[in-house]
Each structure stands twice: as structure tokens, then as C-alpha cells.
TrEMBL record:
Membrane disposition: Multi-pass membrane protein
Keyword Metal-binding: no
Transmembrane segments: 28-50, 62-87, 99-117, 123-144, 156-175, 187-206, 240-261, 267-290, 302-319, 325-344, 365-382, 388-409
Sequence segments annotated as region (Disordered): 1-25
Superkingdom field: Bacteria
Record's protein name: MFS transporter
SUPFAM superfamilies reported for this sequence: MFS general substrate transporter
Compartments, as annotated in UniProt: Cell membrane
UniProt lineage: Bacteria, Bacillati, Actinomycetota, Actinomycetes, Kitasatosporales
CDD domains, per the entry: MFS_NepI_like
Key words, A-Z: Membrane, Transmembrane, Transmembrane helix
Keyword Transmembrane helix set for record: yes
Cross-referenced InterPro entries: MFS, MFS_dom, MFS_trans_sf
Residue ranges of domain Major facilitator superfamily (MFS) profile in the record: 33-414
Length: 426
């Protein structure tokens, strides 16, 4: 009997033939495969955030200065940003199945280096490589979008993206719990084992013989074309700005919320603060719903409502010092809004040029990284100077700027989702 990979390959070939000929509807990507994509995305991206609750322990173990310990997070994110631009576009010229499996196996090696590190230099090199290779997450998103039928692409991207945000939110909680049981090195050993298992499963399940790569560009031309796409496509530039602003707001909250919770009147332990990520996972519910709305051609309206919720979320968040319930409400609203805009962005930009999906998604995510870094640096610095209230004003400013951008541009950019959706917005 044929294996799972061959079965998915046949479905993909049939879908491609039908899409070219217009003879009948494209088959639906099996839900189990979509969930596998989501799990793999979450597991990969979590490696970027595992270190945050472990920095003090790492520093003591390897006799690192506070400044050197802080560079662990910085190098990981720098590696991730470089990978978005230099590695993710390869999905448009290489067999994505082989590329994904290769990156996962290399990621296993990087995680093993981190777990075995006995010097600061070895740790920093391993963390930089981990960030660089964790961008396999975005290659998986692009691959899932390419396998999905156009009319259901939003639903697929929504479900896969829910795995990304869940991985980000639960990474700190998981690393803290595992480190308490077996030390900080056990976190990276466990992740390496899970990553190796996922590489084996994806090797067996993903299509073994996909269609020829959509472009024959050389590597340098490939990178240049990523910049050209941004210069040419107004919608891509707009959605990149939305991504920058929502992740600036997202990072403003999650990079600084531990500060007021560890002080009076709460004095919460790190484990309790990390558990707040479980509340944020509720936002993952927005991903599939937003994807379905995009499939109906309601992307513009979904974006506007989500940005309004993002701005409103900072009102309850401002009362964090007096009410944990207000914090919970604010976290849920913020994560719902960020998820909805993110899924809408991913769905729309892929529709612009499906043959350049990896370049579009990788280039777009560079702006997310810029927004995330901006929010983190500004929020922590502002908290030291002016306190939690000022941090909430900063987050609200990012959010309101995004809402204003939507209001000024909502009638000026065509919605590519309307090309495939059964219903389009006026």
C-alpha cells in the first residue's frame, strides 16, 4: 500500500491539475496534516523563546556577566531575522519537503550544541544557529498555504498560524517547568528530541514529489526579487506595516508584563507569571475564525475590527496593578486581535503571488521582527522610567496607529482575496 506521503502527493497533483484546468473543485487538505503543520510550527518557533526564563540559571552555570547573558536573547532574534531573509525564500526554488526536513535536522544539531555548551562562546553560537534555523516555521506556513485549495486557504493558514502563536506563548511556561525538573539543559535536549521526531514524521507525510519549483532564479536574484516584490506591491507594504505595529504592541505587553507582576501587590513567582501564557493561548481561537472570514472575502472588515479590539485591550490592561481579572481580559483581547490580523496578513500576501509565497512570507515577517524588537526595547526602558501606565500608553499608541492606518487606506488597496472568495466586500 502507498505511504501517507504518496497519498498527499496524489492529492496535491490532482489539485494542481484541477486548478489549471478549472474542471471541478480542489480537494481539501486533510485536517490531520494541517494540525501536523501547526504542531511543527509551534515546536520550531518556541526555540526562540525558551531561553527567556532561563537566563539567570544559564549565566550562573557558565559564569557569564549580566551583559553577556542578555546577548543570548539578542543573538537568537538576530539569527531569526537573518533566517527570514536568507533562508525562507529558498522555499520558492527548492523542494520544500526536503528543505523543511533538512532545516529541522540542522536545528536538532544547533539545539544539541546549546544543551552541551560548556563555554559562553559555545552557548551564544548555538543560540544564534537556533534562531537562524527556527525560521523553518515560515517555510512550513508557505508550504501549507501552497497545498491548500484557494477557497479554503484562509482556514488552513489560520489553523497553522494558531500553532505559531501557541508555541510563542507556551514556550516560557514549558521551559520553566522542564528546567525545574531537570535543569536548563534538559529544555534543549527535550526540544531536540521533539524536533527530530517531527522531522521523521514530516519526511514520511509530506509530498514526496511536488511540482517543479515555481522559479529558476539564482540565489542572489531570489533575494533581490524579495525586495522588488515589496517595491512593486502596495498591499504587501501595507500588510507589512500592520504586522510591524501589531507585533510591536504584542511585544510591548509580553516583554514587560512580568515586571509589575513580580512586584507589590502580587510578588508572583516565575512559574505563575509564565502560566499567563496559557491565558494568551485563548487568542489562538481567533486564527481559524479569521481564516474563515478571509475565505469569505471579509479580510478588510476583519482587520478593522481586530485593530479596534487591539486598541481597546489596553484599557483593562492599564488596571493590571489593581486587578488580575482585568489583566486576563486584556490579554485575551490583545491575543485575539493580533491573531486575526496576522492570519489575514498571511492569507492576503500569499494570494498576491502564490509562486513567490516563501519570499512574500519571509520578507513580511522581517517587519514583524522589527516590530517585536521595537516593542520590547521601548517597553522595558519605559517601565524603568515611568512605570506600567506609560507602557500601556505605548502599547495603545502602536495599536491606535495601526487602526488609523487601516482607516486611511481601507478604500485604497484592492483585496486579492476577492479573486477566490465566494463573497467580496465593497
Amino acid at each position: 500500500m502507498p505511504g501517507n506521503g504518496e497519498a498527499v502527493t496524489r492529492r496535491n497533483r490532482t489539485r494542481s491539475t484541477e486548478a489549471r484546468s478549472g474542471e471541478g473543485p480542489a480537494s481539501v487538505l486533510p485536517r490531520g496534516v494541517v494540525i501536523l503543520f501547526a504542531v511543527a510550527c509551534g515546536a520550531a518557533v518556541a526555540n526562540v523563546y525558551f531561553s527567556q526564563p532561563l537566563l539567570v540559571t544559564m549565566g550562573h552555570d557558565l559564569a557569564m556577566s549580566p551583559a553577556l547573558v542578555g546577548s543570548v536573547v539578542t543573538l537568537t532574534h538576530v539569527g531569526y531575522g537573518l533566517g527570514l531573509f536568507f533562508l525562507v525564500p529558498l522555499g520558492d526554488v527548492a523542494d520544500r519537503r526536503r528543505l523543511i526536513v533538512a532545516q529541522l535536522l540542522l536545528l536538532v544539531g544547533a539545539l544539541a550544541v546549546v544543551a552541551a555548551a560548556h563555554t559562553a562562546a559555545m552557548l551564544l553560537a548555538g543560540m544564534a544557529a537556533t534562531g537562524l534555523l527556527a525560521v523553518v516555521t515560515q517555510t512550513l506556513v508557505a508550504f501549507a498555504a501552497s497545498l491548500a485549495p484557494p477557497a479554503g486557504r484562509g482556514r488552513v493558514v489560520g489553523l497553522v498560524t494558531s500553532g505559531v502563536v501557541t508555541g510563542i506563548l507556551l514556550a516560557r511556561t514549558a521551559s520553566g517547568l522542564i528546567a525545574d525538573l531537570g535543569g536548563w539543559r534538559s529544555v534543549y535536549l527535550a526540544s531536540a528530541s521533539l524536533t527530530a521526531l517531527l522531522a521523521l514524521i514530516l519526511y514520511r507525510v509530506l509530498p514526496r514529489h511536488s511540482d517543479a519549483p515555481p522559479t529558476t532564479l539564482r540565489y542572489r536574484q531570489l533575494l533581490r526579487s524579495t525586495i522588488t516584490l515589496f517595491a512593486r506591491e502596495q498591499l504587501l507594504r501595507l500588510r507589512a506595516l500592520f504586522g510591524l505595529l501589531i507585533f510591536a504592541a504584542f511585544s510591548t505587553l509580553w516583554s514587560s508584563v512580568a515586571l509589575p507582576l513580580s512586584e507589590a501587590p502580587y510578588f508572583l513567582p516565575h512559574s505563575a507569571i509564565g502560566a499567563l501564557g496559557l491565558v494568551g493561548v485563548a487568542g489562538a481561537l481567533a486564527a481559524t475564525a479569521a481564516g474563515r472570514l478571509n475565505d469569505r472575502g471579509l479580510s478588510r472588515r476583519t482587520t478593522g475590527i481586530a485593530l479596534a479590539l487591539l486598541a481597546a485591550s489596553w484599557l483593562p490592561l492599564a488596571f493590571t496593578r489593581s486587578s488580575l481579572w482585568a489583566l486576563v481580559v486584556g490579554v485575551i483581547l490583545l491575543d485575539l486581535a493580533v491573531q486575526a490580523v496576522h492570519v489575514t496578513n498571511q492569507t492576503l500576501i500569499y494570494t498576491l503571488h502564490p509562486d513567490a509565497g516563501s519570499r512574500l512570507i519571509g520578507g513580511n515577517m522581517v517587519f514583524y521582527s522589527i516590530g517585536s524588537a521595537t516593542g520590547a526595547i521601548a517597553a522595558t526602558a519605559l517601565y524603568t522610567v515611568a512605570g506600567w501606565g506609560a507602557v500601556c500608553v505605548l502599547g495603545a499608541a502602536f495599536s491606535c496607529l495601526g487602526l488609523a492606518l487601516w482607516a486611511f487606506t481601507r478604500h485604497g488597496t484592492a483585496d486579492p482575496a476577492a479573486r477566490v472568495a465566494p463573497r467580496s466586500e465593497a
